[in-house]
Amino acid sequence: MSITPATRVSITANRGVTGALFGVAILSAVIRIYIRAIKLKQFAIEDGLLLFAVTVLCAVTVLCYLTLNDMYNLLDLILLGMGDQLLFDIIGSIPKESKEANAMSLLWWLVLFPVKFAYLFFFRKLVLRLGKIKTWWWCVTVFMVPAAIACFVVTRFACPFTGVVEMIGPSANTRQVRVTSVTTAFDVVTDFMVASLPIMLLWKVQISIHQKLGLGIMLSLSLVMAIVAIVRLAGVRLGGGEVDIVWLAFWQQQECSIAVCMLSVTAFRSFFVANSTPDRARIVSAYWKNKLLRRKALDESGEKGVGDLPAIPSATLTGVRTMIRGSGSLGTDSCDDRQMMLHV
């Protein structure tokens, strides 16, 4: 069996890029989970969605590697037609390969849309008290649900590839292009809708420079996902009009890895979420510091006060002699005065 060079992505490059981006995605997800669960002792809805997306990404990546050679052979068959000898070599495995391809398509959406919803839950914390932006957040969330359902339904029921005739020919190419166009449209529109949230925050909210920088980074990553989806659709056809199924699978797999990386960045919340209590924390810290310093000064001086206030030093009389009253006798200073008077 030959591995066709007709596609713009060689099998070696496919394996290398897929493995590299998958590794980066897993590493970034592990770092995020460590920061959130171990360091910050926090676990939110977006963290659960990330774990789900990572699990599905692992499954679809394994399936992608297992079916990579078969995918290239199917592209050979699409290009060469049913009269080629290759048909007799792989005809028995075509139903199995088509089911695996459909399963991969569904799993890709099970990575992408949980990531989108995770971002919505992350931004919810930022727009909770911002009236118009919060209303837009609800609009994006409500639109995201039917968009996800549409991608699943179109992928599952519009591509029932179970035989050779359904996979080869102009009608199959037209159907594949139509399905890719519809699902990519939903993908790109939802990406831009999610990206609109940090745009509105950047323009409407008075936040610090480092927080604006963080939101800008998040925005650029969201646009990278949209760009990858557009590239996937732009290269769907080869020179002869045939659908490049390798190209479609390659770019959708990379989009999933990029999506996980993008979501993992949100673990660094100090860049994105305004800390509402930094001044109060500094005031409390200064209070206890001053209190400890006063306590230490009191201990060193030996004086004891009432509460946290230092004691008032007692008066000290020097050079004065007093007479002790109430005892019927004179003190030492009276005797000295009498002696002085007799001497005079």
Structure notes:
This protein has 344 residues and is an all-alpha fold. The protein has helices spanning 11-39, 45-66, 68-80, 86-90, 94-127, 131-157, 164-167, 170-204, 209-234, 245-264, 278-301, 332-343. It has twelve helices and no strands.
Strand percentage, roughly?
under 5%
pLDDT below 50 for ≥5 consecutive residues: which ranges?
274-284, 303-308, 320-335, 337-344
Rg over CA atoms, rounded to whole Å, is 38 Å
How large is the count of helical segments?
Answer: 12
Helix-residue proportion = over 70%
* Overall morphology: elongated
Instruction: Please write the string of helix (H) and strand (E) elements.
Output: HHHHHHHHHHHH
Question: What about the largest sheet?
Answer: none
Topology (SSEs and partners):
Blueprint: H1 11-39, H2 45-66, H3 68-80, H4 86-90, H5 94-127, H6 131-157, H7 164-167, H8 170-204, H9 209-234, H10 245-264, H11 278-301, H12 332-343
Helix pairs in contact: 1-2, 1-10, 2-5, 2-10, 5-6, 5-8, 5-10, 6-8, 8-9, 9-10
